[in-house]
Structure formats: structure tokens, C-alpha cells
Amino acid sequence: MRVLLVKPDNPNVYKHGPQASIVYPPLGLEYIAANIDDIADVRIIDRRTKLLSLNVFGKIIEQFQPDYVGISVNYSSQIYVSHRIAGIAKTYGSRTVVGGWHPTLVPSETLEFKSFDIVVRGEGEITMRELIQSDSPIGVAGLSYKRNGKQIHNPDRELMDLKHIQSPNRQFRSASAKKTYNFFGFPVDSIETGRGCPFTCNFCCIPYFYKKTYRRRANQDIINELQSFEIKKRSSFVFIVDDNFIVDRKSVVELCDAIIRNSIKKYFITQARVDTIVKYPKIFEKMADAGFFYLFLGLESFSDQTLEKLNKRIKFRQIKLAIKILHDLGYIIQGNIILGANIEDTKQDLESTIEIARSLEIDVPTFSLMTPFPGTKLMEQALREDLLLTKDWKDYNWSVPVLKYQNLSSDDLSYYLTKANEELLSFKKAMSGITRFIRSRGLSYHTSRISPVDIFNVIFQILKNLKTLL
Fold it and tell me: Domain residue spans in the chain?
């Protein structure tokens, strides 16, 4: 049995700005590979690492002759290119399987694409293994498929126990992939400590993908993975991919203690909530000691009224305080703001949002437009109130207006998105964050993790990236 796993290219919006210099490994596909490599000949193609033309991709299919081609479709805007990839696979007799956030949340619609044979709903490790073992989707929990022109949706699969989940198989990375996975020029790897989020922001699909649960891996398994050859010897930076890293606070502190105790000298990147920072600053002090230095924060809005509508469960005063707490600890902050986060926003509201963002010390401010993804409360509202401008999924990429506003046109939204990016994303601000980080942690902190030459390299990479954006 041969299985080819494919990571499509990122949406165009990811080819500009800070995200253009951040490419993480396809951890989800590597988890799948680890669970089937004993029963199948597996390969992974990551089209982000070296953009292959569809003709070249076809030649790979022809040479490998996979029985199954599995495609990861997390972003809705990837669905069309994934369908083209699946179409090529089918011309060579492969069965096509798609999984990820988008297919999980709209399985019936996904199966309407003629080149998709099977949809994996939810977590795919065990589901894919059972599919490969039986060579049939019949009776496999978590699968939707077509049979004799009809759609069949098998029962949902229960969420996995993560306590001793098999670690992802990183052996399938090509030489070019290893060079491509980077964080502003530094070699980077990814690791997962938990899945899910107990919060239910109305624009986020994560709670619905993971059924509003949160589960965490065993800390010793995480330490073992951090000490593996692929991470220990090849990567200076490690991105913890959890959508909300600090849910189980006790486990986070214990993990940081274990990282320090085992002398794991890495720079860690992850995501956190504003309210957690304000309530538990000591946890972030412990994280800093363990090597955490770069945090992604979903700020979304500076209006308490809008934050309440988004069900963010934070206040603007907490945003300001969280930024101060993190800066005092030497963190670099990347904060995302949604322009038009309130359907009632006016031009003055967008102007105000940009001015407030300018006044805050956000080292790497990023901006997006309100986008209603499948399965979210926001999409339910948009459908209920007839707010959608389009259902063309390629436009669902955070940078194209897809919602009707009472007081704003699509041109207004596009104008202010460009304005925010051009005026607020600056090398000076990023350099300020880097300088603060280097000074606050001390020389020995850095020299134990990375060479001085590489520190200058990251500055060069950020400058290069910002030049491309502006």
C-alpha cells in the first residue's frame, strides 16, 4: 500500500508580511505518517517548501503510484487547489482523501467536489490507519464518502487520548524542506502539547473542530520529543502549535521546570490569551526562564463592546496591561487586530483602531479582516442576516472583504487594511522588541542557545521581510 500526503501551498496572504518569513513543518501530516508508516509506504510533499507546478506534481504521482493521496485542507482558501491536486491523483487511479478544519466543518459540501472521494472529519491519525488497513471507508468512524452517487457519513470518531500519542514522524522531510522550515531565517521545528480550546470566540472554528474540549499530552512525552535528534540537533527555535498553550496552568509550569531541569536550550514560540497573562504573570516569568520569548496574541479589537460581541472575554485595559507585563519580561509580541471586527463599524472606528494600535507597543502588529469561516458563530450570523458578499472560498483568506457592512464598503475595508500594514508594521518597532529581548534576558541566556552571528542574521531577515511588504 502506498500513501502520499500533501500539504498545499499557503494562501497568497501568507506570502507577504511577517508570516512570509515563518514556515513551520506540516506537523499534522507527520502525525498521520507516524500512525501508518508500519502498514504503508508513505511520502509527504509540502508544496510550501518548493512550489511544484501541477505538471511536476503529476509526474511524482505517476512515479510513486500511490493507492491513496491524502490532502490537508485547513484553510478554506486552499480547497480549490486541493481539488486540482486530487484531480491529478485520480487520473492515475489514486483514491483521494481530504482532512483538516475546512472539510471537517463542511463535509457534505466538500464531497460535492468530484475529485474528492473521502473526507476525514476531525482528528485523522486513527481514522487514516483504519482506512488503510481495511482499504475501504465502510464502517470507519469519522469518515464521509461517496458511494453510487450518494454521500455516506459514518458516525463521528471519539477524540483521542493524548497522554501517550505517537510522536510525529519527522523522517519524511526532504532536504529542501528542512532548509525551508524557518522562523525569520532560523531553523525551526514544531511540537504540540495539547489540542483544543475551552473558549468560544465567535469567529474561531477550533472549538467546533475539537468539540469544545481541551486535552493535553504527558509532559515526559513532550520532553522526550524535544530531546529527539531532529529537534535537539537541527533547530534553534521550537513553535508550540497549541491554539491555547496555557489552559492547564499546572502542567505548563511543570513542563517549564522539566525544560530547565533537562537543560533544553531552545527559543520557544507559542500563542497565549491576554486575560491569562494578566491573571497569571508568574507563569509567563517561568516560561521566560525556560526559553519562551515570542508570543502570538489575538487582540482583535480595542473596543470593549466589540470584544464582548466577539465573545473574546477580555477588556481593552487587559490588553494594555498584558503588553506591559510581557515587555517587562522581555517578550517580543506579535498581536493581531481585526479591522471591521464589528459589523456596525464606521470609517472613524477603523481610523481609531489604527491610531490606538499605533500608540501601543506591539512589536509586530498584524491586521486582518473579519472572515466568517465554516462552523463558526460568525458564519451562522452571516447566513442568518444575509451578510455574505461571496461564498467563493478563495476569498476567505483574512485580506479580502467577504461581509456586508452597514457603514463600510469593500473598498473602505481594503484601503484601511493596506493603510494599517503600511503605517504600523515597521523595522524600527520590530528592532525595539528584539533589543529589549536581548538586553532583558542577559548574555549567557542567549549564548547558551545560539551564536552571536545568528542573532544578527535574524535582524537581517526581519529587515528583508519588511522591505518586501512595504
Answer: 2-153, 181-469
DSSP 24: -
Long-range contacts of the stretch 324-329 (C-beta < 8 A, 24+): 325/277, 325/278, 325/281, 325/284, 326/277, 326/284, 326/295, 327/361, 327/436, 329/281, 329/284, 329/285, 329/288, 329/440
Residue 361 CB neighbours (<10 A): 16
Joined together, the cell numbers standing for residue 402 give 467577504
The helix/strand/coil state of 140 is: coil
pLDDT tens column, 376-399: 999 999 999 999 999 999 999 999
Cβ 217 vs Cβ 254: under 8 Å: no
> Quick one: 32 exposed, middle or buried, by C-beta within 10 A (0-12, 13-18, 19+)?
buried
Q: Global pTM?
A: 0.93
CATH superfamily of 2-153: Cobalamin-binding domain (3.40.50.280)
Tens digits of residue pLDDT in 409-450: 999 999 999 999 989 987 778 888 888 998 999 888 988 888
